[in-house]
């Protein structure tokens, strides 16, 4: 795994805040401490700034988003889920809905891959249900925050808080996408509302003509910052992916050279800094 490229601190992050943004961060922190929604173990300045950026540093709007998130966590029992929820059906689910993390891009961000085109919704919901899938999805985000991102940050030598996502639409049909749309919409809402500003880049590969047409209609409705993060590609996507991802860090199935050994290959292996003892978080660090 080659080293990440030179790091540039983007605007609105620690180390690149305007005086006004710094003052807003401090004011927001005082507000959530006063109202009792601040949890020091989870709410560092990086996280608070993600919420502030999502609401363009408007304190009132940010506080509503933040409070809604904390209420949602309590209702779902996210902290308890981490201790009690067991997803026994993972192996079968993985076979009919392939999604996994696989190494890092050239900026040191974890790469998340979903093969949307091979989702088998009928089989999926024979072995599990939407509620359990949602809980598993939430716990995947929690693990991203407590395990994967810290390991990536240690390896990169600077804070990593965003992912590089690859959505593979190879083989997708309109009917198949329609069947999966409800779950995809629900999980997308969770990401947008409760884990904001964690998408650094998204590549949609093997996009059929129908998707490109739909994207053309949806694009004007999205925030300009979000649009710049999304790249829609057809079947000739490999060279574009390799501009941002080293071939050794990309599965061979989508244009790279990695062929993880063992049963399940790259999908089950999920290689990355989070599997390297040099970068893995200790139990004490996870609760610090």
Automatic annotation (TrEMBL):
InterPro entries on file: CRAL-TRIO_dom, CRAL-TRIO_dom_sf, CRAL/TRIO_N_dom, CRAL/TRIO_N_dom_sf, PI/PC_transfer
Domain CRAL-TRIO: start-end pairs: 89-262
Domain of life, per lineage: Eukaryota
GO molecular function: phosphatidylcholine transfer activity; phosphatidylinositol transfer activity
A single GO BP: post-Golgi vesicle-mediated transport
Any one Gene Ontology cellular component term annotated for this protein: cell tip
Coiled coil regions, renumbered to chain: none
Stretches for region Disordered: 264-288
PANTHER family noted in UniProt: CRAL-TRIO DOMAIN-CONTAINING PROTEIN YKL091C-RELATED (PTHR45657:SF1)
Record's protein name: CRAL-TRIO domain-containing protein
Species of provenance: Lobosporangium transversale
